[in-house]
Amino acid sequence: MAISTDDSDDSYLWLEDLDGPEAATWVRERNAETVAALTGGPAFAARQAEIRQVLDADNRIPYPAWRGDGYYYDLWRDATHPRGLWRRTTLDQYRRPEPEWDVLLDLDALAEREGENWVWGGVATLPPQHRRCLVSLSRGGADAVVVREYDLGDRAFVADGFTVAEAKTDVGWIDADHIWIGTDLGPGSLTDSGYPRVVRRWRRGTPLTEAEIVFEASTTDIGAYGWHDLTPGFERDFVTRTVDFYRSESYLLTGAGERIRIPVPEDAGWDVHREWLLVRPRTPWQVGEVGHPAGALLAIRFAGFLAGDRDFNVLFEPDDRTSLDGYTWTRNHLILTTLTDVRSRLELLSPGESGWRREPLPGVPVDQESCVVETDPDRDDAYLIASEGFLQPATLRLGRVGGSVETLKRAPAFFDPDGLAVRQFFATSADGTRVPYFVVGDPAAPAGPTLLHGYGGFEVSLTPGYDGIVGRGWLAHGGTYVVANIRGGGEYGPRWHRAALRAHRTRAFEDFAAVATDLVSRGITTPAMLGIEGGSNGGLLMGAMLTRYQSLVGAVVANVPLLDMRRYHRLLAGASWMAEYGDPDVAEDWAFLRDYSPYHNVRSHERYPPVLFITSTRDDRVHPGHARKMAARLREHGHDVSYYENVEGGHGAAANNEQRAFIEALSLEFLWRKLDPSAEAVPAQRIRPEEWTPASGEARNIAY
């Protein structure tokens, strides 16, 4: 049943006017208040400086991308190049402590020349030469990008090349003279979620508006896109209609103009590599006499599957403790990453005449968390893996199936780990579910300031990783850091996610509250010294904790948060998340959304912990109106609320390292003041001077 869409009772709707004069004045006033309150002392300057050192460190690992031409590509940002250098080098050079890099595009020089604050948005190169590129550039870090064709030989944008105006564009190469494209071409070209609805095949030298329309989705879908498989000998084209966040329909396009449906379940993930099709069902899938559980991974030859074969090879099946985190192809092999109680394992699977052979992936340490950084599935069976832990900086290794494994790079340490430990505990949630969480800190320390991070949505897993900013800004000063693996995430596969979907969202909040309670019960912290933080969907979690479990925590930081569950689907990309949260215009859905919507549950008589909201005017994914309106309503009721809105930065809230260092320092200053109010300066640091110089460090932040 539909409900009224009248929002006349929302007295802060005017704050959704992104650049309206009244809203802009309100933002400037709130920013000035927060900056004056938090940035005036020596502690803030010291925090900002140490974070900036981490972000700009010269010897952090330049994590490379492989594009099929043998080069190691990288986008590098530092104090001299805040917007970044897109560059490449050879393997022999990359092995050196200071490789010689070939700069392909200097974004700082480009921004100065064109008078734009360009932020790198990605690049697609055209095999096999990889000379022609489709470069995406964002103004200030927004999701919307400008696409421009670039020539790596000439180091210049191509005159009269493929160029697309600023929009949320999906684009990819077909061949040197054709690309797949979906973009904003005016009324009817976008879905309600703001993504491309129409897929076109665009030929070089012709107007984009005249490009051939190949496929169209519904306005109520999330979007549609086309893509070309460029694998030599397996060239083929596909189009996909994304029905909602978890359901889609995909088609193979034939040379004869046919559109053949890929007959997998709508909510299943699938992938083709050479002759193979992989299917990853999100819900149980009955195939004839055989049932496949949610979270499994199945393999079959693609041509045979289209012809009716359903005799799958089962490559993975989950159990109560183990889930599939991901997979990556080399040319002839498949690397599986699984999680057992949120600890990773990498396996190598090899197809053969008698089935798939399985063995551990060489070069993976057993005492750290590892992930696949890169493979080159068109060229060979090489792979890059990174291994790290909460207290172990990353090590990057190069392996080759059947060959040796070598260490290429090691990240330097930011802080002294002596006396610190990583422990895993399980809290018991309201319905009896065991919820894992990691505690990083001094196990012998008395109850003290503790920072608890969570997300709990969209089947995203939070796994252990070395975080230079948290290490320098929190652990090194004596704080304890905690990561909660609550439901809604993917730590135990689709079932863990579905448990907190739509009407069951409050289970994620209950899990997080259970972890907070368990931390106090174990003597790790007290409610007054427990800070919590999260961003985006994690910002919704923070809002729910603030309004539902306020007695459990001492301070809250919510980054680019989602908070108004009545209007979220009408703001920017919000309509694309209704499969996750529900439809507020349906009475049955609004009943459970209204129950927890943070914006609708602010009360004047409650005693809320102090809260800091951080967002960006240029966030075109989660509208800054969420944070603006929540802050205004809390102020109206007399609560302790701080607010900072960066003028750029997109969904990351920062467009460069300077902005990010400021925002991170702002959060840490707020937390230290609220959780340890007796501290008037930066607490003593656990740093070995011989291990730290301003030019060293590595930042890999799992908090966003």
From TrEMBL:
Residues 476-676 form the Peptidase S9 prolyl oligopeptidase catalytic domain. GO terms for molecular function: oligopeptidase activity; serine-type endopeptidase activity. It holds the Pfam family Peptidase_S9. Keywords: Hydrolase, Protease, Serine protease. One of its GO terms (biological process) is proteolysis. InterPro entries: AB_hydrolase_fold (IPR029058), Pept_S9A_N (IPR023302), Peptidase_S9_cat (IPR001375), Peptidase_S9A (IPR002470), Prolyl_oligopep/macrocyclase (IPR051167). Residues 8-221 form the Peptidase S9A N-terminal domain. It comes from the Bacteria. One of its GO terms (cellular component) is cytosol. This is Prolyl oligopeptidase. It comes from Micromonospora sediminimaris.
